[in-house]
Hints:
The protein has ten helices and two strands, in the order H-H-H-H-H-H-H-H-H-E-E-H. By secondary structure, it is mainly alpha-helical. Strands 1-2 form a two-stranded antiparallel sheet. The protein is extended and about 70 Å long. It starts with a helix and ends with a helix.
Amino acid sequence: MATLISCGPGFVAKTLGLLSSRSLARCTCVCAAVRGISFSTSSGGPPKRPLTGYLRYAVQQRPAVAKQYPDVRIVEITKKIAQEWRLLSPEQKKPYQEAALAAREVYKEEMTKFKEQLTLAQATALKEEKRKKVAKRRAIRKKRELTMLGKPKRPRSAFNIFMSEHFQEATGESMQAKMKNLLEDWSKLHTSQKEVYMQLAEDDKIRYKNEMKSWEEHMVEMGREDLIRNRKKKTKPKKSVKAKGNKTKIKVVSESEGTEMPASSPGTGKSASRAKKAEE
Length: 280
């Protein structure tokens, strides 16, 4: 249950806000891998994922809590419901958890039937979408963990520093419009004006380098070498001797003249006889 609560109030608030009175029993999320693909089943799409025990409790308690606190935002209401859920005893949580487990079993059966009638292309798309979702969740967890461990923020570019200083006074109704106007203003700046921000960006790189060095040393002390950046060791390339066919080049030194003569592989014996004839 700690995993469910650790999802954050924002996620639960969005979930509760999207639920209607007709979808209290299940979540309304539809697998994106099969969007736009027509199916021959009567359901017309994949089965809907059931609510967890906590979400069932949250959906049930939300109207009462919202009525009790009419001027409170949905995020704060979700926090209050999460706090109440933590204080519930195992016996009080049991009905919600049992209902969630029963709905989960029904979902598994429906999902198995749904996958059986998929074509190869649809099954491949479903599998690929699932892989992307898992990778995205892992990346989010990784980023959250690094933030909690105090990993330094990456250095800002010269334009980013310029944008942060002039964003409030920039013209434009939307964020995209403001950023577009700031980009145009940046391109019109003189080189001498840009040098100020470029120097600030260089200073920020030094800050990041020093902070990362200290942070990585601290991670090593904590036994978290897996968070250290990979340092590729430079290895010298090994010297290899290329041979053409079965022949190799050797040098034969003449005793009389003291000159070097090329010869074939020593296994043939022809090189030695030629050397003797040359001496005679």
